[in-house]
Amino acid sequence: MFEFTALPPLALYIHLPWCVRKCPYCDFNSHEAKHELPERAYVDALLRDLEESLPRVWGRTIYSVFIGGGTPSLFSPEAIDTLLTGVRARLPVSAGAEITLEANPGTVDEQRFTGFREAGVNRLSVGIQSFSSPLLERIGRIHDGAQSRRAVEAALRAGFDNFNLDLMFGLPGQSVEEALADIATAIGLQPRHISLYQLTLEPNTAFAHTPPVLPDDDACWEMQTRGIALLAQHGYARYEVSAYARAGSTSRHNLNYWTFGDYLGIGAGAHGKITDAHTQTITRVWKRRHPREYLDQPGPAGEKVLTPDDAALEFMMNALRLTGGFTTELFTERTGLPPDWIGAALEAAKIRGMIEWDGYNIRPTAFGMNFLNDLVQLFLIPDHGSTTQREGIR
User: Fold this and answer.
1) Are residues 208 and 316 in the same domain?
2) CA torsion, points 8, 12, 18, 19, in degrees to nearest 10?
3) What CATH number is attached to the domain comprising 384?
4) How far from 47 is each of 77, 89, 92, 219, CA to CA, in Å?
5) Which domain holds residue 92?
6) Is residue 346 within 8 Å of residue 315, measured between CB atoms?
7) Which of 103, 346, 370 shows the shortest CA–CA distance to 238?
8) Tens of pLDDT along 212-271?
9) DSSP codes of every residue in 237-267
């Protein structure tokens, strides 16, 4: 059913699952580091995991690496160096690859950042969330406002000129003015990239069990709309639902996700997605979630071959997040499916004013972007004759 004429770019995601303390809003696969981190054993497991994945990607080059967590900056620069050296020994990594490491302001200093840079990391993603100490305390972060600023200053002194700052709005008891002050402070630190997203209460988190009082919908809407305007005023263009970048500084790794590129995922709970032109398949692979189980068995825990309906839905779920949209040519290249596979759903979305579509370029409107979940719902039912319900969104 699939007909691939080219393989998409290939990225590598590496999951380091430990953190100092689990944040009450976090639903990621993260675990409190109650004892000394098993750095050497875990890096060895990651590289064994990677070796088992190699037959799926023979001859392909890695164009971006993202080390996420958890709190990857808990690992020593020496461990990160061993890890990245091991990756390069097993896979070709392009000379200009974007290599990102997530960092928590409460776990880093200039010396540590310098070590990460010497290990080959060339981009940071710093989990600031807020510059307000009272707000940070309310959401259970281990750092305060002063540490937020010091972490960015230390990164700059260590030579990092390419970094992202993560910010949240809609925090417990947060005013519109406080949210805008956080954005203004972040802008003043001159990052190339800012991620701005609203706090949501996810299932199976401490906040879901004991919900805090959050700002109402009108206040959150004002935080977002005025925040977007402030970012645009200072040269940060919104290119994805929650991502803002200066010219030439979009996240290559995340853009690969949003355009349905391929990626290997290694580490506890990591997921991967690989296209195979020989078998004309797209396969999702996942690893064991708990670090202890992963250390014992670092290979695949399971896999699923996508159906054409799965692939079409997943492409649209991701690509519709992009403010600049995409082309029908990209849809065909990444899914191996003809554009008419989603033609009826595109027509329905256009009639509802949720997308602009000239038969080739597809772009969500402001209305469609604001009601993205409703827009994606239009692609849940196949429009090519099948009456089978697509699987739910992961």
Assistant:
1) no
2) -70
3) 1.10.10.920
4) 17, 10, 14, 47
5) 10-256
6) no
7) 370
8) 999 999 999 999 999 999 999 999 999 999 999 999 999 999 999 999 999 999 999 999
9) EEEETTEEE-TT---HHHHHHHTT-EEEEEE
